[in-house]
Amino acid sequence: MINRVLIRMKTVQLLYSYLLVEKPFGLESQPFAPTKEKRFAYNLYMDLVYLMMDLSKKVVGKNRKTPLEDTRFIIKVEKDDRIKSMGIKYADGSFPFTSVEPHLIEAIKNSLLFREFEKNRSEGLTTDNFWENTFNSLIITDSEVNKVIREFPGYSLSGEERMKQTMEETFRNFYSSKDNIEDSLKTLQLSMAKARDLYMRLLALPVELTRLRSDQLELNRRKYLATAADLNPNMKFVDNTVAREIENNYSFDKYIEDNHLSWRVEDPELLEILLKKILDSEIYRKYEESSDSGIHQDAEFWKDVFTEIILNDKDFLEYLENKSVFWNDDLEIMGSFVLKTLKRIENPETREDSVMPMYKDGDNGKDARFGSELFNYVIRNKDIYRKYIDDVLARDKWETERLAFMDVVITMTALAEIINYPEIPLNVSINEYIEIAKSYSSAKSGQFVHGLLSSLIESLRGEGIIHK
Q1: The pTM is what?
Q2: Cα dihedral 257, 192, 372, 126 in deg (nearest 10)
Q3: What letter does residue 110 receive in the DSSP assignment?
Q4: pLDDT value at residue 226
Q5: Which parts of 280-323 fold into alpha helices (H)?
Q6: pLDDT number for residue 400
Q7: Which residues have a Cβ under 8 Å from the Cβ of 289 and sit 6 or more positions away?
Q8: Which of 75, 265, 346, 422 is the Cys-Cys partner for 299 at CB 3.0 to 4.6 Å?
């Protein structure tokens, strides 16, 4: 149900947002031409950062694990080459805070901060502020720690205050950094899940509209002055086989039940508006008056209802826009899959499996991994891919500063796919990203991306980087 066309689109959108505001986190740099005070403050700052990193490996939580190692702050700190060098430097046991570590480990383990950390972590809540709070309330206020600090060469009270300001700036930069790939990949997966949610919600419309109409007809029958039409209504719409097939489908029923989805609960007014528009339409009049019946006629009716009414209805589109930011770009593709599902319902061979799975090759298949892999390829190689692009643009005498950033992102993503997925035909990759450029960038972007990719492929083939 979620195909690579949609995955490519969502990956490009996410990469654009990520790269546009990317602000990698890093520790503070050593001051230029440092005074004695500045040198003391910076060395103390780095030692205290190293202390937090070292403590993260020694504070044992539930199940005898060290959960503080997996905090985002520590993960970022460990990647810093200066911290790695300090690990080599202090391998001989000369780290000045070694003597206070056992005391600090116990203080952290028994603290309310650590209990709240473990609780939040188990519930999937953010824990980014743990180390700032721990530093301010447990580490820098500790009398044993302060005793060690005062023994540092060149100690001064003003130098200690400068260190605290540097540490404060480090945490501020950490919170504002935009380089958390894990969060972006979670957003990508959420976006995929929302696409499936939209597909199921669209499929639910024939079921819920049919139920609503059945309830209306039943009320009409019970009217005090019921007419002949009220007592003997045309039941073709209510008894349509398509709605029944969808409702009885195991995958659909389980999804609806597990996610508690109901149009009549969430927006009964919208459901009534859609039903009225259907009943007032020429599509319904012809369907009701036709003597033909059967699953083919019912499927054709619902195809017409979706294409002519539901997927073009202003109220419905506005509702979707307000309901989820992900659905604006999903509707066209999910609508096409609903139409394919209706066609599958017509066919006895595909009727039982008419509701499509999230990924055709399963939740652990290649399609399920495609988006996150593609995203990571671009992030890891973005500087290399940008150099490839700039070299070609310079050779062809394009003005690189006038290049639309979305065009850059689209081209880098196309390069990532072409280089890393040899099994995907070259023309498929090129055509897909040309279409994305037409939809998401400027009017001339499709033609521009086509020309740029052609030049890049020719160049990278010559260098032996692209083989297909």
Answers
A1: 0.70
A2: -70
A3: T
A4: 78
A5: 282-289, 295-308, 314-323
A6: 61
A7: none
A8: 346
**pLDDT tens profile 246-283:** 999 999 999 999 999 999 999 999 999 999 999 999 99
For 461, the token pair is: 């083939």
Q: Does residue 41 contact residue 162 with C-beta atoms inside 8 Å?
A: yes
Give yes or no for a contact between 411 and 418, defined as CB atoms under 8 angstroms apart: no
Report residue 363 as tokens. Answer: 């939740």
Look at residues 149, 77, 78, 144 and name the one whose alpha carbon lies nearest to residue 105.
144
Taking each helix axis from N to C terminus, what angle separates 426-440 and 405-420, rounded to the nearest 10 degrees? 160
410 contacts 440 by C-beta, under 8 angstroms? yes
Q: Residue 66 to residues 48, 61, 71, 103: CA-CA distances in angstroms?
A: 19, 6, 10, 17
* 330: its two tokens: 């999903």
In sign, the C-alpha dihedral spanning 229, 277, 265, 302 is: positive
Q: How far is CA 468 from the centre of its chain?
A: 31
Cα 352 to Cα 246: distance, rounded to the nearest angstrom: 10
Closest CA to 378 of 403, 402, 407, 410: 410
Nearest to 165 by CA among 50, 282, 42, 51: 42
Helices 81-89/36-56 angle, 10° precision: 80
Q: How confident is the model at residue 180 (pLDDT cuts 50, 70, 90)?
A: confident
Dmax over CA atoms of the chain, in Å, equals: 101
How many CB atoms are closer than 10 A to CB 71? 18
pLDDT by residue (tens digit) across 312-322?
Answer: 999 999 999 88
Question: Using CA atoms in the order 392, 398, 399, 405, what is the torsion angle rounded to 10 degrees?
Answer: -60
